[in-house]
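Long-time lurker, finally posting.

We've been working with MFS transporter (Paracandidimonas soli) and I want a structural starting point before designing mutants. I don't trust myself to interpret raw outputs, so I'm hoping someone here can both generate the structure tokens and explain anything notable. Sequence follows.
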Amino acid sequence: MRFIEFGATTPTAGAHLKPLNGIGKVLMTRMRLLGLQLLFGWMNLALAVPAIYLMFGMPVVMRQHGWSGTEIGLFQLAALPALFKFLFAVPVQRVRLGSGHFAHWLLMLCAVLLALYWQLGRENLIDDRLMLFTLTFAISIAATWADIPLNALAVRWLPRDEQLRAGSIRSAAMFLGAIVGGGVLIVIQARQGWQAPFWLMGVGLVLGMLPFLALRSWTAPRMAMDEDDAPEPCVLADWKGFFSQPGARQWTLLLLTSFPFIGAVWLYLKPLMLDQGMALERVAFIVGIVGGLTGALFSLIGGRLIPLLGIARAIVLYLLVALGALILLTLSIWTPLEGEAWLIACAILVAAGMGMVSALMFGLTMFFTRRQRNAMDYGLQVTLFTASRLAVPVFAGMLLDVLGYGGMLMVLTLGVLAAFGIACRVRETVARSTQPMLAGRDESA
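Top reply, 14 upvotes:
Generated this for you. Predicted structure of MFS transporter:
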């Protein structure tokens, strides 16, 4: 009788435990994914801050120390390595550094960055123009290169339906990096001296490196499972294979047109507001801090809304927000409406639209990165994105000199309108091509 009672009660107790075990597994999985998302977000921030600090924050200091406008302009050439990310991706994809080689590539390049921080921070180089440019150029190469294995790991470790969120977090990290590198570190340097920003950037990088050191062994079985044992194709065949993916050509057209025009508007917002009579400190606060926080917030909101809206609707809706922001900003220049409130509202709306569009672009970039060609596909897409992002502001600057702010904004608004038209035509193709990727999510995640 005791045996019967024991046997009868045991399955009942197990039945109560099974749902609890299932809930526990779900919670553990979500906590692991959240930890990975935060880790990738932190590392994207740590890699973005040095370039922003040196190329967008430092010109203020340079001007104070007698640098000419030409010298400051030529210093921006240190950003050129970003155009060659597709070439940096080749050794990352093909040169194996043992099991978990993407993590090893990332750690090696971060170690190079730390060495460059130490070299640059040893003494004040603001008057040694050549050495400052050389070390900044080297930092740009190392940070650009390290971005490839970092985001290749994001494609490999995160399930497909988490990669849109990773894109939004990365976009938010870029906006926060602009606040830190373009504002906070400049203040710290003014108060604590030349070395302080480099120490802080080094500490932030080390904090991001430590989890990757611990996760190297964890990556080994997943990498072995995902690797293709077939012989590597030639590099040109790899790039051609990217464009052979369903929807890849339509996506590339969207990638080239969606962000650069609103990005160019953001670049010229500070001069525009200054020329409208606003004080420098007020412009820096509104665009640099409030605008940056707005962009980061709407990057996260945009990433959360994509699964609810669907990719096809999100593509059109986000570009419509960007288009509306540019129309209102253009009207604020053309019409006799006066007062800072209207211009500030337009600037905040531009930041919101840019945050939503960039979150979508970064997320879909991961979607169109093949798991067997993580580094190559990611490097190629980011190179295309960077080339258009750098080319449009140069064109916009020429328009500003010839047509003024009103004419420049009108042309850039027409550019976003063209991107919106392209989005309406390709959205269904791009959305359909992502469905198999979402269906093929990692079972082990």
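Before you design anything, note these points.
The radius of gyration is 24 Å.
The chain has two domains: 31-227, 235-445.
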